[in-house]
Amino acid sequence: METYEILALRYAVHDRPARENFLFWPEGDPHAAMPLDYFVWVVRNAARTVLVDTGFGPEAAAARGRTLLVHPAEGLRALGVDPEAVRDVIITHLHYDHAGNLAAFPNATFHLQDAEMAFATGRCMCHARLRGAFAVEDVVAMVRHVYAGRVRFTDGDAVLFPGLSVHRVPGHTQGLQCVRVATERGAVVLASDAAHYYANLETRNPYSITVDVAATMESWDRLASLADGPDHVVPGHDPLVMHRYPRAAVAGLDAVRLDVAPTGR
After folding, report:
1. For residue 136, with 0-12 CB atoms within 10 Å meaning exposed, 13-18 middle and 19 or more buried, which class applies?
2. What pLDDT does 1 receive?
3. Which residue, of 140, 198, 238, 250, has the fewest CB within 10 Å?
4. pLDDT under 70 in the chain at which residues?
5. For 196-236, what is each residue's pLDDT tens digit?
6. Burial class (CB in 10 A: 0-12, 13-18, 19+), 230
7. Spatial contact of 236 and 39, defined as CB atoms under 8 Å apart
8. What is this structure's pTM?
9. By three-state DSSP, how is residue 32 classified?
10. What is the phi/psi pair of residue 12, to 5°?
């Protein structure tokens, strides 16, 4: 089986209290600072480079009060990835922070769950609380890519390439998918927003944006079953990721290696 290197690129941050990161009142001081990090992920080996999610740009950062550290496309270039050369992009879900900047990848095929497109374009978007984390122009852009023949849909689980598969883990959205990657240290699961923080998993307390609480909790068990151990599940927004994994050797860039065993806690 092929194995891959995985790089997590931190491209934005947001300061916030802990109470905003849990559906139920969190343990400890709910007003304590618990910042949110934003990542895109590069999965690559000698045969291919696959991008997981595309992040957001300066307009979305300004509109939503986030601090953009680097435009994801520029960060990728610093990692040696030319956005125009990327052929495959996995979109874990269509929230603004995971599915913006699509135009930066003009030659890519986008991999998406059937259920996510149906959710983001269906009746649930009539409710302001459910559509708040979506950006309509990003969703419309994806629809245009469907009509251009540039979207490959999955219904549930699929092996996209040897050693690289996607798995539907609903709850945060209806069509959220995680990514299972074969590495030298075993199967690593990029949870994306199936678990924003390690603490969501450890305290069994979902993130505050959750459309199906029961499905979220079932999805946690699915993450565990797909990974080769607890330290092989990587949450989608936790600043601890930057502390637990070794830094990638790129000056001035916030990026860590996830295919290497964590070194901190």
Report:
1. exposed
2. 80
3. 140
4. none
5. 999 999 999 999 999 999 999 999 999 999 999 999 999 99
6. exposed
7. yes
8. 0.97
9. coil
10. -160, 165
